[in-house]
Design a protein that fits this description.
Elements lengths: L1 H5 L2 E7 L5 H9 L4 E7 L9 H9 L4 H8 L5 H14 L3 E7 L1 H4 L13 H6 L4 E8 L2 H8 L11 H18 L1 E3 H6 L1 H12 L7 H4 L31 H6 L2 H10 L5
Parallel strand pairs: 1-3, 1-4, 2-3, 4-5
């Protein structure tokens, strides 16, 4: 315990794909003096690189850092440590939005899920971990996820729900908010997230978040705009609701996260 307290603290927000994480992170990133790296994972740096985001989005890297990087890539934990140090020097609060999809769904980027919080496991050698999560009802998340072209034919409902059940078990231990609560009471839920992550809540986020662009996962749609509000559930084909109801991972997940089955 003493060793953990002496380590610098890193803030991590865990979110599954298509769970409303992008809009939540646009709001979190709009808080005063927050630097938010988006969809970061030790196995995902070819697509979402923390140093690239730190440099291009926030101008955090110094000329000496760039010279050093030209000599060869840094290990993941060293890259995060560098970004952390540059944030600390500028009195910025670093928050890492985890690419949790890789750990609990994996396809098509990785062959199989690890069912663990990989980024926390890797960074705990260097940092004390301060983390929390956001979730969405499994039915709504699945209805959105399966529409992604890159997942077409590559994942089954059973595989998705197994991963979500593992994720939910972690969420209960570290604390979470539900997307459905966020869209109804955004200020209240963001205050909870800020408190858990150890950053100051800034009510001025309301003016900033619609124009926040340093984010991954941005989706332009008819719902895009400056309003945070509930949306109706997408239509389901015959038999899908029964498939959820008879899946043990689904039933355990909604019990853990406090959801009802429709």
């Amino acid at each position: 315990m003493t060793e953990s307290k002496q380590k610098p603290e890193i803030r991590i927000l865990h979110q599954m794909a298509r769970s409303g994480g992008t809009i939540i992170c646009k709001c979190i990133g709009s808080m005063q003096d927050v630097v938010l790296l988006s969809e970061i994972h030790p196995s995902g740096t070819k697509l979402f690189n923390p140093l690239k985001q730190a440099h291009e989005w926030f101008q955090l890297l110094e000329p000496a850092d760039l010279t050093r990087l030209r000599q060869g890539p840094l290990k993941f934990k060293d890259a995060i440590a560098l970004v952390y140090e540059r944030c600390l020097e500028r009195n910025k609060a670093l928050i890492i939005r985890d690419w949790s999809h890789l750990d609990f769904t994996a396809v098509p980027f990785l062959p199989r899920p690890s069912y663990r919080l990989t980024i926390a496991a890797v960074l705990k050698e260097r940092f004390a971990i301060r983390n929390t999560a956001t979730v969405r009802h499994p039915i709504d998340q699945w209805l959105s996820l399966r529409k992604l072209a890159l997942l077409n034919g590559k994942i089954t409902l059973e595989v998705f729900l197994k991963g979500y059940r593992h994720f939910a078990e972690y969420c209960v231990r570290m604390g979470f908010i539900r997307y459905e609560d966020f869209v109804r009471f955004p200020e209240q839920q963001l205050q909870i997230l800020c408190d858990r992550l150890g950053v100051a809540y800034d009510p001025a986020f309301e003016e900033r978040w619609p124009g926040y662009r340093t984010i991954t996962g941005e989706v332009q749609s008819k719902r895009a705009g400056s309003t945070i509000a509930p949306v109706p559930r997408q239509q389901m084909e015959a038999g899908l609701l029964d498939a959820f109801e008879h899946n043990k991972d689904y039933l355990k997940t909604i019990k853990l996260l406090g959801y009802n089955h429709p």
